[in-house]
Design a protein that fits this description.
The protein is mainly α. The protein has 13 helices and no strands. It has one domain. Helix 10 packs antiparallel against helix 11. The longest helix is centred in the middle third of the chain and has 28 residues.
Length: 345
């Protein structure tokens, strides 16, 4: 893997900071899309509006920017010449699945359990995707520090959202509903890796984000049309402009993730955005609390523990330590083998 695809410590800190910053806005996006769904009394219609506005915004940005126009012209040749597997262009379908999971399970599970389910799936798949080398940064070894940091992240998120858990007399009844957000979270890491690879070939995350939103919008429009054929039209779209900010915020999130996975890897990009989500949720509950919002000590401490877990996951495992435990032979540094800094296999 080329050296340029790996990040220096300073670049890693900058990239991780961007991932956290991108994650901060996700709770606000969720609040906006949730309000739109409540206004329309239709979660699928709200998802269609979010994806469609995001598609329009990213298309406009790409057409205005010279580099964006160049990248758009690379989409068809990249697919025709199979510069990457063609199914990668369908990464946006995973985004549509995530929205569907929100629509059909948040009401049953609650926001807290939904969040823990998504984070669990995303963290596990982040390790897997990095090990498989699907992202443009190539393979990244599964070290003890990364595993420990991932486990601590899941535990910290569960602790942070624990004040919002509601008691259930039938936990077994939640087993099947919780599998959908776990699956959606699990596939999110693949989505980020696929978009990151497409970004390298297109030359800009703008084109990858456009293709992502286009694929997701098609799926959601089909679902909405089927629903309209059965149930008829719903409520009219609201006139307030802020209801339509969810899509543009999604553009920032998808584009930033596609850009960062090359240097940070899928796991660290995901963990950084998870930390940002908790920080954003905490800030939103303090500044603009929703009905029933809870800001308790576990919320604050769980958020801080999440940040600590991410720092732990970024720490390098001492070279030779694991090899010494298997017989005393130090592992050959990957730099000497021409594979860039850090072990990759």
């Amino acid at each position: 893997m080329p050296q340029s695809s790996r990040s220096t410590p300073l670049a890693a800190v900058a990239g991780l900071s961007l991932a956290v910053a991108g994650g901060v806005f996700l709770p606000l996006q969720g609040r906006i899309n949730g309000a739109l769904g409540a206004r329309l009394e239709d979660g699928i219609a709200a998802a269609v509006v979010s994806f469609s506005t995001g598609l329009i915004v990213i298309a406009a940005v790409g057409l205005v920017l010279p580099k964006g126009r160049t990248a758009f012209r690379q989409v068809i040749p990249a697919l025709r010449e199979r510069r990457f597997p063609r199914p990668y262009a369908l990464a946006g379908v995973i985004g549509a699945l995530f929205v569907i999971a929100q629509v059909f399970t948040v009401g049953v599970l609650g926001v807290a359990l939904f969040t823990v389910a998504v984070v669990t799936g995303q963290t596990v798949s982040g390790l897997l995707v990095d090990r498989m080398g699907i992202a443009p940064g190539g393979k990244r070894s599964v070290t003890a520090m990364r595993i420990l940091g991932s486990l601590l992240t899941v535990a910290a998120v569960a602790w942070a959202v624990s004040p919002r858990f509601s008691a259930s007399n039938e936990p077994a009844a939640l087993l099947l509903p919780v599998l959908l957000p776990v699956l959606a979270g699990f596939l999110m890491s693949f989505q980020q890796a696929m978009n990151g690879t497409a970004t390298v070939q297109y030359g800009s995350p703008v084109a990858a984000t456009f293709v992502n939103f286009a694929a997701g919008a098609v799926v959601l429009w089909v679902l909405l049309l089927l629903k309209l054929a059965v149930a008829g039209p719903g409520h009219a779209l609201p006139g307030e402009w802020w209801y339509y900010l969810g899509g543009p915020m999604g553009c920032v999130f998808i584009g930033l993730a596609a850009l960062l996975v090359r240097s940070l890897g899928v796991l660290m990009t995901g963990l950084g955005m998870i930390a940002g989500q908790l920080l954003g949720s905490l800030a939103l509950d303090v500044v603009l609390p929703a009905p029933g919002a809870v800001v308790a000590l576990p919320t604050v401490l769980g958020t801080l523990l999440t940040l600590g877990a991410i720092i732990l996951a970024t720490l390098p495992w001492p070279r030779g330590a694991l090899a010494a435990g298997r017989g005393g032979r130090a592992a050959k540094p990957a730099v000497e083998a021409g594979r860039g800094p850090g072990p990759v296999g």
